[in-house]
Design goal:
InterPro entries: Kinase-like_dom_sf, PQQ_b-propeller_rpt, PQQ_rpt_dom, Prot_kinase_dom, Protein_kinase_ATP_BS, Quinoprotein_ADH-like_sf, Ser/Thr_kinase_AS, WD40/YVTN_repeat-like_dom_sf. This is PQQ-binding-like beta-propeller repeat protein. The structure is a single chain. By secondary structure, the chain is an alpha+beta fold. The protein has 10 helices and 43 strands. Helix 4 runs antiparallel to helix 6, helix 4 packs antiparallel against helix 9 and helix 6 packs antiparallel against helix 8.
C-alpha cells in the first residue's frame, strides 16, 4: 500500500500514514533519526513503528546502518529487549515495527521523580547486567547505553536502540562525521580507539547509567560534550550519592582500562546474595500521547529521542557472548504447555482452592467435546502455561501459582495463588512421586502434591535459573557458572559445584535411556562450544568434547545421536550438527548446512527429521539421514511470534501463536491442517509476551491464550477447530 501523506502545518504533517501494511495512529516521539508511531497489526497487536526521516532515507550508508540496527534488534529480542515484529529497511522510508511496551524511560523517571531508592537501584543493576550479558552473548555491542535507552517496566528494565547512531544526539562525531555515542555515557576507548570498542564499553556505560539513576547526574558532568570527553578519558568519576554497598562495583565498571572492568556475569555474581528488599520496579503513571478517536489503553509519554520497543518469547542463554533467542523446544520445562476452544467454563478470580473430584473414566465419552476455561479474568493478561502428567492437566497463570484442571471437562479441581507482576506465568514441571512443580525463569521452583495441591518443597534461585528435570533429580543453573542438583522427591540438594572444563555450563536435554543430561558452554567469542553429559544424581562429567561454532543442544535422533543447532554470527541458525552416540559421546560429528538461515524459535525432533520453527512461523522439516541433509518441505504459516513446536501422534505438529491461536501441521506432507480462532478479551486482542507451547495428551491438545484462558480441542480433527 503506498504511503499517504498528512496535511497541515504540524511538524509531523509530512509523515507517512502507513509503514508497510501498518496504519500509523499516533506519534509517540521523535529523535534525530526518525519518528516513532503507535500502530496496530491486522490482528490488533499494538506496535511501536520507527520511520526514518526522509532526509536520511536517501543516504545509502545510513540505510546500511539502519539495516544493521534491524539485524541487531532481531538478534537480541528477549526478556530485556523489544522484539522486532516486522521491518523494511529497503522501503522508500525505511521502518521497523516492534512490540509496544508501556513504561517510562530511566531518564524520564529520574527527571520526574528524582533518583531511585537503593532497593530500586540494586534491582536496576541486576536487570541491566543480565540484559548486557544476553546482548553480548548475541554478539552485539550496544555502544549507546544511556538512561533514555532504558525502559522501566513492571517486569524489569528493557534496553532499546541497537546498532544505530542518531546524528542529533550529540555535538561530538568521529572523524568521518558519524556519531559514535552519547559522551556522558561513553567509555574512554570510544573517544580514543573507536574501531576497537567491545563489550567492556557497555559495562562502562552501565556504570555511568547507575550513577545517573542514583544521583540524577552522571559521573562526568558538563554542558560541553568536549569537556565531558576529556573528563571520561582523564578524570576520576564523581560517585557522590551512590549507595556505599554499590559504589565499589560501580567504580570497577568505570575503570579506564577495559580489561579492569567486570563482565556482566561477574556483576551479577557480585550482587549475591540478593537484596530481598529490592522489589520489582513499578513505574509511575505517566501522561499519554494523543490517540486516534475511540482508542484507549496504556500509552506512556516518550522522550523526544526515545523510540519505543517491546519484548518476545524468551528463554535463557549463556556467558560473555549471549544470544537472546527464544529457547528451543527442549528448554527446561519443555513438554508442558497450553491451548484452546469449545464450551465456556468460567472460573472466578483464583484463590487457594481445595481439591475436587476429577472425572472418572466411566464418565468419559468416546467422543471428546472441547472446552474453554478462564483462569485469569482481570488484570494484566498473559497466556497461562500448562503441563500434562499422570492423566492430569496442570496450569499456571498470572495470579495462579498452579491449578489442576480436569482434562475432560476443564473443571478446576484445585488452585493455589501465585504472583501477578511478572512477564508471564510459571511453567509446570513433571517431578516424581506424585509431585508437580511450577517454575519461572526469574523465580524459585515450587513443588505441589499432585492430588490436592498442598505445598511441598521450594528451590529458590538467587538469579534467574533454568530447571531441567532429569529422572529423580532436577538440575539448576544460575547462569553465572554455578550448577547444582536437587532431589525431585524431597527438594534436598544433592550436589553443587563447578563442572571441570566448563566456565558457564547450561543444562540441556535429558536422555532417559542413558540417564545422562547434556550440558554445554559457548566460548566468549562464539567460535567454540564445549558439550558433554553428566550424571544428574552426582554431577559427574561422563564425557565432554569441544566443537567448532556457536552450538546449542536440541535433542536426540531416533538412533541416539545428539542434535545441536549451529548459529551464525548474526544469531541465525545456519546448520544442524549431529554427534554420534557411540564411544561415550566420541562418535562421528556431522555438520549439515541448512538451505537458509533461520531465526530459530524452537525445534522438534522425530526419528532423523528435525523440525525447525522460526520466530515468524516459518516451519522447515530437515532430514538428517541424508548424507548432506535435505529439506523435506518448507511451510510458511505467517503466524508471527510463536511458541516452540510440539509433536503429537499421527504425523502431527502443533504450536501456539501470540494472539491465542493453536495451529496444527501434518508433518508427512508439510501442510497446515487446522487452526483455532484468536482469543479476545472484551472485544480487544490481548498479547502474550511469552508464548507457551501447547500440550498434547492422547487424542486432545491443550492450548492457552492471552485472555487468560485454557482450552482443549480434539487432536483427531484439526480441520473442525
Amino acid at each position: 500500500m503506498p504511503p499517504l501523506r498528512g496535511t497541515g502545518a504540524d511538524r509531523y504533517a509530512e509523515e507517512p500514514e502507513y509503514a508497510g501494511d501498518y496504519r500509523l495512529q499516533a506519534c509517540l516521539g521523535a529523535g534525530g533519526m526518525g519518528v516513532v508511531h503507535l500502530a496496530s497489526s491486522a490482528s490488533g497487536l499494538r506496535l511501536a513503528v520507527k520511520v526514518v526521516h526522509a532526509r536520511y532515507a536517501e543516504d545509502p550508508e545510513f540505510r546500511a546502518r539502519f539495516r544493521q540496527e534491524v539485524t541487531a534488534a532481531r538478534r537480541v529480542s528477549g526478556a530485556f529487549t523489544a522484539p522486532v515484529v516486522d521491518a523494511d529497511p529497503d522501503a522508500e522510508r525505511p521502518w521497523m515495527a516492534t512490540l509496544y511496551v508501556p513504561g517510562p524511560t530511566l531518564a524520564d523517571q529520574v527527571k520526574r521523580n528524582g533518583p531511585l531508592s537503593p532497593a530500586e537501584l540494586r534491582r536496576l543493576t541486576a536487570g541491566l547486567a543480565e540484559a548486557l550479558r544476553d546482548i553480548h552473548r548475541a554478539g552485539v555491542v550496544h555502544r549507546d547505553l544511556k538512561p533514555s535507552n532504558v525502559l522501566l517496566t513492571d517486569t524489569g528494565p528493557k534496553v532499546i536502540d541497537f546498532g544505530i547512531s542518531r546524528p542529533v544526539d550529540s555535538d561530538l562525531h568521529t572523524e568521518t562525521g558519524k556519531l559514535i555515542g552519547s559522551p556522558p555515557f561513553m567509555a574512554p576507548e570510544q573517544f580514543q580507539r573507536p574501531r576497537e570498542v567491545g563489550p567492556a564499553a557497555d559495562v562502562f556505560a552501565l556504570g555511568s547509567v547507575l550513577v545517573h539513576a542514583a544521583t540524577g547526574h552522571g559521573p562526568f558532568d558538563s554542558d560541553s560534550p568536549y569537556i565531558v570527553a576529556y573528563q571520561v578519558v582523564h578524570d576520576e568519576p564523581d560517585l557522590t550519592g551512590v549507595p556505599a554497598d554499590l559504589a565499589p562495583l560501580v567504580a570497577r565498571c568505570l575503570a579506564k582500562d577495559p580489561v579492569e572492568r567486570p563482565t556482566p556475569a561477574q556483576i551479577m555474581r557480585a550482587l549475591l546474595p540478593p537484596s530481598y528488599a529490592a522489589e520489582a520496579f513499578i513505574p509511575a503513571q505517566r501522561r499519554r500521547p494523543a490517540l486516534p478517536e475511540g482508542e484507549t489503553g496504556p500509552s506512556p509519554a516518550w522522550d523526544a529521542d526515545t523510540p519505543v520497543r517491546a519484548p518476545a518469547p524468551v528463554p535463557p542463554p549463556r556467558g560473555p557472548r549471549v544470544r537472546i533467542r527464544p529457547r528451543p523446544t527442549i528448554a527446561v520445562a519443555a513438554a508442558l504447555a497450553l491451548t484452546a476452544a469449545g464450551v465456556y467454563a468460567a472460573l472466578s478470580r483464583p484463590t487457594d482452592r481445595g481439591p475436587e473430584t476429577p472425572t472418572s473414566p466411566a464418565e468419559v465419552a468416546t467422543s471428546f467435546t472441547g472446552w474453554h476455561t478462564t483462569l485469569q479474568e482481570d488484570g494484566p493478561t498473559a497466556a497461562p502455561a500448562c503441563g500434562h502428567d499422570g492423566g492430569a492437566l496442570y496450569c499456571a497463570a498470572r495470579g495462579v501459582g498452579l491449578a489442576r484442571l480436569d482434562p475432560v471437562t476443564g473443571r478446576v479441581l484445585w488452585s493455589r495463588t501465585g504472583p501477578v507482576g511478572q512477564d508471564g506465568p510459571d511453567v509446570p514441571v513433571a517431578l516424581v512421586d506424585g509431585l508437580i512443580g511450577a517454575a519461572a525463569p526469574t523465580g524459585p521452583l515450587k513443588a505441589y502434591a499432585a492430588g490436592d495441591g498442598s505445598p511441598g518443597w521450594s528451590a529458590a534461585g538467587s538469579l534467574p535459573e533454568s530447571y531441567r528435570p532429569a529422572g529423580s533429580s532436577v538440575v539448576l543453573s544460575d547462569g553465572v557458572g554455578g550448577i547444582r542438583a536437587i532431589d525431585a522427591h524431597s527438594g534436598k540438594e544433592l550436589w553443587r559445584h563447578d563442572l571441570p572444563g566448563f566456565e558457564i555450563p547450561r543444562p540441556g536435554p535429558y536422555d532417559a535411556s542413558s540417564g545422562l543430561l547434556t550440558v554445554s558452554d559457548v566460548s566468549p567469542d562464539g567460535s567454540r562450544t564445549r558439550v558433554g553429559a553428566i550424571r544428574p544424581a552426582t554431577g559427574e562429567v561422563v564425557w565432554q568434547r569441544e566443537l567448532d561454532g556457536d552450538l546449542e543442544p536440541l535433542g536426540r535422533t531416533g538412533d541416539g545421536a545428539l542434535v545441536l543447532a549451529s548459529f551464525y554470527d548474526t544469531g541465525l541458525a545456519d546448520a544442524v550438527v549431529l554427534v554420534g552416540s557411540g564411544d561415550g559421546g566420541r562418535g562421528a560429528v556431522r555438520r549439515l548446512a541448512l538451505p537458509h538461515r533461520i531465526d530459530l524459535q524452537g525445534v522438534a525432533v522425530r526419528g532423523g527429521v528435525v523440525h525447525l520453527l522460526a520466530v515468524d512461523g516459518h516451519l522447515t522439516a530437515f532430514d538428517t539421514a541424508a548424507e548432506k541433509g535435505r529439506t523435506l518441505w518448507d511451510l510458511e504459516t505467517a503466524a508471527g511470534n510463536v511458541s516452540s513446536p510440539v509433536l503429537g501422534p499421527g504425523d502431527r505438529l502443533y504450536f501456539s501463536v501470540q494472539d491465542g491461536r493453536l495451529l496444527a501441521v501434518d508433518t508427512a506432507r508439510g501442510a497446515l491442517i487446522g487452526q483455532t480462532r484468536p482469543r479476545l478479551r472484551n472485544g480487544r486482542l490481548g498479547y502474550a509476551t511469552r508464548v507457551p507451547a501447547p500440550v498434547v495428551a492422547g487424542d486432545r491438545v491443550f492450548g492457552t491464550a492471552p485472555d487468560g484462558s485454557v482450552f482443549a480441542v480434539d487432536a483427531r480433527d484439526p480441520a473442525a477447530w
